[in-house]
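Final report, closing paragraph on structural work. Over the funding period we assembled a curated collection of sequence-structure pairs, and we close with a single example.
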Amino acid sequence: MINRQWLLAHRPARHLTHADFEYREIPYALPALAPGQILLRNRLFRFSPAMRGWMKATAQYVPPMAIGQPVLGNAAAEVIASRSPDYPVGSIVSTLTSWQDFQVMDPSVVAVPPRIKPADMSLEDFEGVFGSNSLTAYFGLLDVGRPRSGETVLVSGAAGSTGSVAAQLAKIMGCRVIGIAGGAEKCAWLRETCGLDATIDYKSEDVARRLAEFCPDGVDVFFDNVGGSLLDSAIEVMARFGRIVLCGQIASYDDGDALAPGPRNMMRVIYWRLKLQGFLVFDYIDQLPSALADLRRWHDEKRITHHSERVRGFARLPETFLRIFDGSSHGTLLLEAD
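Its predicted structure, as stored:
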């Protein structure tokens, strides 16, 4: 047997490139598992902007990726050997794994235990509309943002995997929703398919001017996936006692080890009594079953739609991941190992 791997060749000096990865094939023999361990074969990889942050030298909520080791990433994987009664052979799990064919894991010691795919759910839906990105949107918007019917909700990165679900959840809560996305096609999809009330194309429109136009009474909840100048612009139009959900900082992920700039107008944050709060889906492990039940019900009722793009070919892992940062991806980006 051969274990294909994509390694982090070196820590990116600034913008991530294909040269920062190294492909390797090594002989692989099925290991003798210790009690509680499982052996996974990775089948469907899912990409998220946060992975770029894990490549930096500074510790994030996970330790920095090790140079010369397989890249950390999420995937749906098949359990092909098991010494854990909770994860029988043949089950499919969603978990934090790495860019290689095979991986040994002890589910009892990882921060987030692997989730088992229900039999009636497709692999694409398992990692897409019911994956960790959607769960992040669920908890960030509903627990941190706490939108109320009639309020105005603004979402940056609104056509992305997390942002699009957050925006639709806000509509379900009875809110007026405005999405910021890049490109006319994505903005049209948000309005026509996801039902958003208005969109702003940051590539061709003056965001600050459009925010002032769309939000004369202020923004009550801002779900922020981007940070940087978009966060500054949003703070200027927040309503008093507004809530800013800090989900991501994609504007600065691909910028070496430089720290993302903080908001400039902190006095408005104080005087308007704004709440800025970060969160991680790890905070809600015990609530995952109820969240998934809600997402499945709303999806069945066609109140949530989702866009997934599925690429095939293990060799294409690096080039596919890079698309997250050039704006060409839309929704959840998945790669099927061949």
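Residues 132-282 form a domain with the Rossmann fold fold (CATH 3.40.50.720). The CA atoms of residues 231 and 263 lie 7 Å apart. We thank the funder for supporting this effort.
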